[in-house]
Amino acid sequence: MLAPPAPPPLGVAPARASYPLRPVPSQRRLPAPRAVSAATASHAHDAIFLRRAADVADQSAGLTSPHPNFGCVIARPQLETENLDAWVAGEGFLYAQGTPCAELLAAEQAGEHARGATAYLNLEPGDCYGDSTAVSSLVQAGITRVVVGLRHPLKHLRGKAIQSLRSEGIQVDVVGEDLQSKLFKEALTSCLIVNAPLLYRAAFRVPFSVLKYAMTADGKIAASSGHASWVSGRASRCRVFELRGRSDAVIVGGNTVRRDDPRLTARHVKGHVPVRIVMSQTCNLPEEANLWNVHEAYTIVATQRGARRDFQKKLAMKGVEVVEFDMLNPRDVMSYCYDRGYLSVLWECGGTLSAAAICARVIHKVYAFCAPKIIGGVNAPTPVGELGMNQMTQAIDLIDVSYEQIDRDMLMSGFIQPIPDLSPVIPSVDEIPSVDPEVSPYETNIISFYKTWDTFGAFSNFSPHPIHMPDEKGDCLTWPTVEHYYQAHKFAGVDNLQARDIVKEIKKARSPEEAARIGRTRQREFPELVRLDWESMKIDVMYRALKCKFSSYPHLTEMLLSTAGSVLVESSPHDLFWGGGREGEGLNYLGRLLMQLRSEILGTVRTSAEVATDSA
Ligand SMILES: NC(=O)C1=CN([C@@H]2O[C@H](COP(=O)(O)OP(=O)(O)OC[C@H]3O[C@@H](n4cnc5c(N)ncnc54)[C@H](OP(=O)(O)O)[C@@H]3O)[C@@H](O)[C@H]2O)C=CC1
Ligand SMILES: Nc1c(N[C@@H]2O[C@H](COP(=O)(O)O)[C@@H](O)[C@H]2O)[nH]c(=O)[nH]c1=O
Fold first, then answer.
1. Residue 262 beta carbon below 6 angstroms from any ligand 2 atom
2. Residue of 80, 82, 91, 103 with catalytic role
3. Are 275 and 252 within 8 A, CB to CB?
4. Pocket flag, ligand 2, residue 261 (CB < 6 Å)
C-alpha cells in the first residue's frame, strides 16, 4: 500500500496546495502576460504575484483561531520562460500567531533562489513585540525588492516593517503609493478581502460581521410552523461549517434556540471552533439545549440585566457564561466582542435579530444561500425583518457581489459596507515627518471633515470665510470662499478674453457649490483656456488660499491648532485627489495641506522662505 504523502510543514504552501475553503484562482496556472511594454509587463507580473500572495495568505483561515492572514510569494524572472509558475521560488503563509512567519517559510523554501528576487506580501508584516523575523528573513535571504499590497492596518504597526526593509537597502513598493497602475486594482481587492476582518475591526472598532441565511426560492427561511431543517442542501451546510470555522463567534437569537435547538459547531471541518453566542432579552430559554453542552464548544448567553437570575445561575452551573447588558442590542454586543478581541462574527439568527443588527449597522457582509424550493406561507419567516423602508429605492445595495453554485443551491454573497482600505488617506511613515512631524505614524488619530456643518466643517473649502488675495497685478481682491479662489485660478493669468470672463463668472458665483460647478464645467468644455502650469501649480494655489483663510480668522487658527497630533482627512467620497475617497482610496491632499499649514503655524516645519534663506 502506498503511504500517504507527508503533509507540508505548517504554513508552507504545498507545491499544488489543496485549498480547504474555497476555489483559489491563483492555483490555476498563472496567466502569461500579453506582449506589452516592459513597464506594463512588470506591473502585470507584480499584480499577478500579489494576488497569489493574497490567495496563499487565505490558506490559514479556518485552521486556527482567526488572525491576520499573511502570505509571501518569492519570485524571480526566469528569462527562458513566460510560465510564471516557474518564476515562483518559494511561498509561505502564517499558520497561527506565534508560528514561523510567512516570509521565513517562503525564504526557506526558496533557498539560494531568493537572492536578488522579489518578495510579494499581501500585508505589511506586523513587527509585534520586537519580533523582526519577517524583515530579517527577507534581508538574510538576499531579497532585493519587496512589493506590499497593504500597509498594516493597525496604527501602532503601520509602516514599521516597510521602514526597516528600506533602511536595509531593500526597494519596497507599496500598492497605491509606489505602484499606481490600474493593473493593481484587482490585486489590491484580493489583499483587502483576505484581511477584511482585520480591516473592519481597525476601521469601525467592531468585529467583521457576516449575516448568513438559507432561504427557499420564494424567500423563506422556514415553513410557517417554524420548521427549518433543512432549507439548503448538504453541500451548502458543509460550506456553513467552513464559514463557522473562519469566525470567532456564531450568534443566534433566543427564538432560534427555542425553535431549532442548534449546535452551531464547525463539525466536519478540522480546525477552529467558534464561541456560540445567544442573544436573548428575556433569558426565556430551554432548560436543556445543545448549546449548553460546553464540551462541544464554549457558549455565552448575552441577556438583559436582571432577566431570570435563577435561570442564569443554572446556565452558569453548566459552564455557560452569562453576560448582562443594560440594554441588550447588537451594537453593544459587538463592542463587547471587540473588547474580547474577536475579529469576525457569523450571524446565523432569524429575521428578527438580523433586522436589528442591520439597523444597528454592524453587519458588513451577507451570505445568502438560495435553495431551489418553494414553501409559501404568508407568515413563514423571512431572512430580514422590518427595516422601516417603504420604497425600493431605499434598498441596501450589496457591493462586490459574487455568485456560486453549490450543488443545487446558489450562494450569493456581497458586502453591505465597503471594505475599508486604511492606508492611502494616511500619509506614509516616510511622508509624515515632512507633512507634520507632530503626528506619530504609529499613534494615528484621524479627524475627518467634509460638509461645512460637520464638527470640523470649517476646514472645508466651502466654508463661508471670504479671503483677500492679491491678483497678478498685486491688487487685493476678495473671494467669497477658498473654493471660488481655487476654481477661478484654473483660468487666472491666461491671456484670453474668454478666460478672463470665466474668472469673473466664478468670482461672482452665489455659492461655493456654484463656483465648483462652473470651474469644473468650463475646464471640461474649454481645456485650452486652462493655464498650462495648472497641474503643477494647483497645490501651491490651494496652499496660499488656505494660509490666507486660516491666518485671517483667529478662531479658525485655534481650531486648526486644536487638532495637533491628528491626521486630517477630507472624507469626500468623490474627489480622489483632494479628498480621502469613499473607501480611503483618495490621496487626501486637502488634509495633507492643512496638516502642513498647522505645522507651519506651530513652527515645526520650515517654510519655503526659510529654506530659501538657508540655502542662499
Ligand atoms: N434558514 C435559516 O438560515 C435560518 C432559519 N431560522 C428560523 O427562523 C425562525 C426564527 O426567527 P426569529 O424569530 O426571527 O429568530 P431570531 O434568531 O432572530 O431570534 C429573535 C430573538 O432574538 C432575541 N433578541 C435579543 N436582542 C434582540 C434585539 N435587540 N432585537 C431583536 N431580537 C433580539 C430575542 O430573544 P428573546 O425572545 O429570547 O428575548 C428575540 O425574540 C425559526 O423558525 C428558525 O428555524 C433561524 C436562523 C437561520
Ligand atoms: N435551516 C438552515 C440553517 N439554519 C441555521 O443553522 C442552525 C442549525 O445549525 P446546526 O445545529 O449546527 O446544524 C439553525 O439554528 C440556524 O441558525 N442553516 C443552513 O445553512 N441551512 C438551513 O437549511
1. yes
2. 103
3. no
4. no
Digit-coded pLDDT (tens) for 103-162: 999 999 999 999 999 999 999 998 655 678 999 999 999 999 999 999 887 767 778 899
d(Cα 601, Cα 557) in Å, to the nearest integer?
Answer: 8
Pairing of strands 118-123, 71-75: antiparallel
CA-wise closest residue to 588 among 567, 604, 565, 602: 567
Our answer on whether the CB atom of 615 is closer than 6 Å to any ligand 2 atom is no
pLDDT band at 93 (very low <50, low <70, confident <90, very high): very high
Rg (CA), the chain: 28
Point out which residues pair with 171 in neighbouring strands.
Answer: 145
Q: How far apart are CA 542 and CA 418, in angstroms?
A: 30
Provide the grid cell at 60: 490559514
How far, in Å, CA of 543 to CA of 536, rounded? 13
**Count of beta carbons in the 10 Å neighbourhood of residue 163:** 18
Instruction: Give the residues across from 499 on adjacent strands.
Output: none
Pick the range with the lowest mean pLDDT from 7-21, 169-183, 321-335, 344-358. 7-21
Give the whole-angstrom CA distance, residue 499 versus residue 97.
62
CA distance 336 to 323: 10
- Which is the closest atom of ligand 1 to the Cα of 330? 29
**Helix H or strand E encompassing 311:** helix 309-317
Cα gap 114→137, rounded to integer Å: 10
Cα(253) to ligand 2 centroid in Å equals: 13
What is the ipTM for the molecules in this complex?
0.98
Best probe residue, ligand 1, of 353, 361, 367, 384 (max atoms within 8 Å of C-beta): 353
Q: Write the DSSP symbol of residue 329.
A: -
- The answer, yes or no, to whether any atom of ligand 2 lies below 6 A from the CB of 406, is no
Residue 263 CB less than 6 A away from ligand 2: yes
**358 Cβ contact list (under 8 Å, min separation 6):** 211, 384, 387, 396, 416
Q: Give the dihedral sign, CA 106/109/111/116.
A: negative
- Is the peptide bond prior to 230 cis by the omega test (within 30 degrees of 0)? yes
User: In the beta sheet, which residues pair with residue 150?
Assistant: 123
**What is the whole-number distance in angstroms between the Cα of residue 262 and the centre of ligand 2?**
7
* Per-residue pLDDT band at 474 (split at 50, 70, 90): confident
Of the pLDDT bands very low, low, confident and very high (cuts 50, 70, 90), residue 41 is low
**Who's near 369: CB < 8 A, 6+ residues apart?**
212, 213, 214, 215, 231, 232, 236, 239, 240, 406, 409, 410, 411
Helix (H) or strand (E) holding 414: strand 409-415
- C-alpha 395 to ligand 1 mean position (Å): 22
Which is the closest atom of ligand 1 to the Cα of 256? 17
